[in-house]
Specification:
Elements: H1 2-33, H2 38-57, H3 63-73, H4 78-104
Helix pairs in contact: 1-2, 1-4, 2-4, 3-4
Length: 109
């Protein structure tokens, strides 16, 4: 596993974090142009985009799930555990970005 696992895990974390934070902030700017409440829009988009941020971070396809399936079926658990670790890192990044958005919007209103 080694160094490559940590590098990829950190990249997945920050990619998912950036997708949620960037997407929700840009949606907030769009809300200003549309005369909608920006805090509501930012919170809504942050919660809706979280799962897509994970998908983007792990490669945007079903391949990681196929890697898990193929390796578990033949008894190799290490590659499957790696893929699950990458998914968890991406989810953690997306979730922390969502919580940051909630924290930033807590007194807006």
């Amino acid at each position: 596993m080694g160094n490559k696992f940590y590098v990829q895990g950190i990249l997945d974390f920050f990619i998912a974090f950036g997708v949620v934070l960037g997407g929700s902030m840009l949606a907030g700017m769009a809300a200003l142009f549309l005369w909608r409440p920006p805090a509501e829009t930012v919170l809504d988009i942050a919660s809706r985009i979280k799962i897509w941020a994970v998908v983007v971070a792990i490669g945007g396809s079903i391949d990681p799930l196929r890697v898990i399936e193929a390796n578990v079926m033949v008894g190799y658990l290490s590659p499957a555990v790696q893929q699950i670790g990458y998914i968890l890192c991406a989810f953690l990044g997306a979730h922390l970005a969502t919580e940051l958005v909630v924290w930033m919007c807590r007194n807006a209103g």
